[in-house]
Specification:
Two copies of one chain form a homodimer. Chain A folds into two domains: 207 residues, Rossmann fold (3-Layer(aba) Sandwich), CATH 3.40.50.450; 145 residues, Phosphofructokinase domain (Rossmann fold). Chain A has 13 helices and 15 strands. In chain A, a hairpin with a 5-residue loop joins strand 9 and strand 10. Chain A is elongated, with a radius of gyration of 22 Å. Chains A, B: It catalyses: beta-D-fructose 6-phosphate + diphosphate = beta-D-fructose 1,6-bisphosphate + phosphate + H(+).
Chain lengths: 417, 417
């Protein structure tokens, strides 16, 4: 069997460790150059495949590829672009096959979240439905930690570590100031539908910090919330609130919505923190500060979780190994064997069971009052933020790599998206 | 000469390294226990002195005091409370002397910014004006970097490192997303009147990032700003904006003001980022993300600058040594001998020349178009963010110390603030 090429692309919101998965894919493929001649990366995700805008990763030095392991963001560019069904847009699938054929692509590695798992699943069906043999493997990635079956998703552990650390640090700060100044600190974190990231903020309760966590899974009750804040301030002198961007009123309205939508049609959020802070100020007059971490949290490679980096790399590596083993339409997963000590191994899940399924926080992970987490949740979270994996620094700043991203010569005509 | 006690207090907004100064003060005092019997820390700053709420630091273990070096925030509590002049509130000064006498306090170490230098200066005059011999030394601290004479202020270097790193990481993120999604990222940073912190964001231009920095020193010009953003997006596909909370219109109005004021009467700011982001969206329709770092930036001990930590400690140590040398009414300073290699030493400045003087960015530190920094500014900034000084971690989180803060038995009656 002669060597074929592989296609790799990054999809959706990027993370601190998605490039570690890219590193795992490319380094492993290079070890099997008898089977995989080259990894062509899609420039800006699947769009790179459709427009035949392919990046020749063989032209990158081993040193540059290794540096992906400690570089946040998507080194080849990502995109928010979801393929329609084969019936609704056959033209796109025909184009994909045309590009795959032109560049002898037999392996398709797609690195993304739930929407991307759906795209990957559709590609995995091309062999059967359109007669083009391609093996499609999905590499999980999402800070939202909402993919099913896998114990957790690469990207989440590092955000969780960043949010827990930031909540701890800012809480120490407000504690110092509370006698004469700030009594309330509100940190807004990502998480449209699932409160996994917000739950990380709740971990600092273990260090004696009075923190109230607002999850998307729990309908917002203003009166109850205000009473909870007041009780914490009266007891501790201050209070920290960790609010998920997806926190919403009983009627479904988000605490703050900017009114715009992203390319997938999801509401673009931001601004729950000032809403919450002003609400408390109006009720009790407490001086407040608020922060919105936004991209800072998912890009914070400088504070990545070591276990997260290791898993991101291992899942990229496993994707290639599964492909070489002849597998199709699967996603490598993290399987937890033990929390203390933390032991995990690589498993796999059929894409049919992954695509478009969202995993929420289990009910027994959220405390009875709805404002904190249970011991079961703690046991789940701590291993995911364990260990540090600092990037190299130069002149006081992290030394991240920007690849050359040389294009592969085009063989086909243009394609209108 | 028999040993006397020292008073130490933290004032104003706390930082990632103010406790490193406390560590320097206490460890050095302990080395001279023949001259300084105990360091009494004010609980919540100068208020602790006025209310005779003193903390007995001799009861803290050497290990706990050493851990202050890597713990952010103010370990003894800080306050925003400015002493009036001797003429306007003689009662407060008489009370201070009463407390100093009751607890045999001969040294006064005050750790703060410009307002606090003023308080420290007033205390230093008590000997001459009210016949009580006390030596008052000010230990500089402010993330705003706006104290005069000293080359820089402890706390600033670490914020600068955090903001430059975060700007770099978030810019890598938006660069990945810009083909189909976010094209504009706005990060709001601290700095009411001086743009030192915003200038740190501008450093990432050296890594090819298209960044526009909005300084408080430069009046905001909407038309010119929008044109600059558009030019960057058209050339690079995306643009990062680093906006100082103190950025303002020609008439002096801040881009965003919450309408509340802190205890010093300064406007409490926050929210320039969404204003700027929406302004660009309305003009060009670019999808945006914005973040407000707020307390996260000044509490981020996990990413402290090594030179900042070393200087914070050295200035605390120097304060004690100056006091033992019989000095009064001074502030130890950082004197830069060379930028490359970075060489600095400890100097001193008379408090009369420090109190209430604000140091702005020099005109020749800001680029001609007002949106970036000059090479002179780069040369100034890089040494301040140099080196890493990670705290120890445990269970995935930084291991910060919370002191016991045992009180000193009161000898006097109560005092109404």
């Amino acid at each position: 069997m002669s060597a074929q090429n592989a296609f790799y692309a990054q999809s959706g919101g990027v993370t601190a460790v998605i490039n570690a998965s890219a590193c795992g894919v490319i380094e492993t493929a290079r070890q099997h150059s008898d089977r995989i001649a080259n990894v062509y990366a899609g420039r800006n995700g699947i769009i790179g495949a459709l427009t035949e805008d392919l990046i020749d990763t063989n032209q990158e030095s081993a040193e540059n590829i290794a540096a992906l392991r400690h570089t946040p963001s998507g080194a080849f560019g990502s995109c928010r672009y979801k393929l329609k069904s084969l019936e609704a847009n056959q033209r796109e699938y025909e184009r994909l096959i045309e590009v795959f054929k032109a560049h002898d692509i037999g392996y398709f590695f797609y690195n993304g979240g739930g929407d991307s798992a759906d795209t990957c699943y559709k590609v995995s069906q091309l062999s059967e439905k359109m007669g083009y043999p391609v093996q499609a493997i999905h590499v999980p990635k999402t800070v939202d930690n909402d993919l099913p079956i896998t114990d957790n998703c690469p990207g989440f552990g590092s955000v969780a570590k960043y949010i827990a650390t930031s909540t701890l640090e800012a809480s120490f700060d407000v504690r110092s100031m509370s006698a004469t100044s700030t009594k309330l600190f509100v940190l807004e974190v990502m998480g449209r539908h699932a409160g996994w990231i917000a739950a990380a903020g709740a971990l600092v309760e273990d260090q004696g910090i009075p923190v109230i966590t607002l999850f998307p899974e729990v309908e917002f009750d203003q009166e109850k919330f205000l009473a909870a804040v007041r009780a914490k301030v009266e007891r501790h002198g201050y209070c920290t609130v960790c609010v998920s961007e997806g926190c919403h009123w009983p009627d479904g309205r988000f605490l703050a919505e900017q009114g715009t939508r992203d390319a997938f049609g999801h509401a673009q959020l931001g601004g729950a923190a000032p809403v919450v802070a002003n609400m408390v100020k109006e009720a009790f007059g407490y001086k407040f500060h608020w922060a919105v971490a936004d991209y800072l949290q998912r890009a914070a490679r400088h504070l990545a979780s070591k276990s997260d980096v290791e898993q991101a790399y291992a899942l990229g590596k496993a994707a290639v190994e599964f492909a070489l083993d002849g597998q199709n339409a699967i996603m490598p997963t993290v399987v937890r064997k033990s929390s203390a000590p933390y032991v995990w191994e690589i498993g796999k899940a059929p894409l049919a069971e992954v695509a478009n399924v969202e995993k929420f926080m289990p009910k027994d992970f959220i405390s009875e009052d709805g404002y904190g987490i249970t011991d079961k949740c703690r046991e789940y979270l701590y291993p995911l933020i364990s260990g540090e994996d600092y990037p190299p620094f130069e002149n006081g700043l992290p030394k991240y790599v920007t690849l050359n991203n040389a294009g592969v010569a085009r063989k086909l005509g243009p394609f209108e998206l």
